[in-house]
Design brief:
three-stranded parallel sheet; alpha/beta; 4 helices; 169 residues; four-stranded mixed sheet; 2 domains; single chain
Length: 169
């Protein structure tokens, strides 16, 4: 008699929590303030304001926008805020930082709204490999939200998961 190959992972009681399932679709744009600075470093207020006034803000319609500066310029706080006043009417969301900061902000909004009771007393694997840029901070948020409900939490894939948490009895 042949030894039958049994997929123990598929037959297990493990439940996968995949952060990609909650990744908001939409265009992400990093908006670099340095493009409006003299030689990328010096903010001359009059020129800065004029450049913002003449910029085509409609191109950010329904984008998720991260405002940042790619140079080591010292930017006054009001500069990013002023850029926000121009882009906000068109963008879905605006944050200060890079794309990873934007994704973190999106997950901070989404993850608290989920119903985690479906994971009550279950063994959960937080899926580790993703095709989308899920920030590490999203995993931190997910663990905090899942922990009060689950029996155990692992990270990775079912075939090679790393144990993270087990509820004490």
């Amino acid at each position: 008699m042949e030894d039958e190959i049994i997929n123990r992972v598929a037959n297990s009681a493990l439940v996968v929590f995949d952060l990609e399932d909650y990744y908001p679709s939409g265009i992400r744009t990093q908006l670099d303030i340095s493009q409006w600075l003299l030689e990328g470093f010096l903010l001359k207020e009059k020129d800065f304001r004029e450049a913002l006034k003449n910029h085509n803000w409609t191109q950010y319609q329904n984008h998720y926008v991260a405002i940042y500066c790619s140079t080591d310029a010292i930017i006054p706080a009001w500069a990013s805020i002023l850029v926000t006043t121009y882009v906000a009417p068109f963008a879905k969301k605006v944050v200060l930082g890079k794309s990873s900061d934007l994704d973190t902000s999106l997950y901070l909004e989404i993850l608290p709204t989920l119903d985690y009771s479906a994971y009550q007393d279950k063994s959960v694997i937080i899926k580790g490999c993703s095709k989308k840029p899920v920030p590490e901070s999203a995993y931190i948020i997910a663990v905090q939200r899942l922990q009060p409900f689950v029996k155990s939490i692992m990270y990775g894939e079912a075939c090679s998961a790393v144990p993270l948490y087990k509820k004490s009895k």
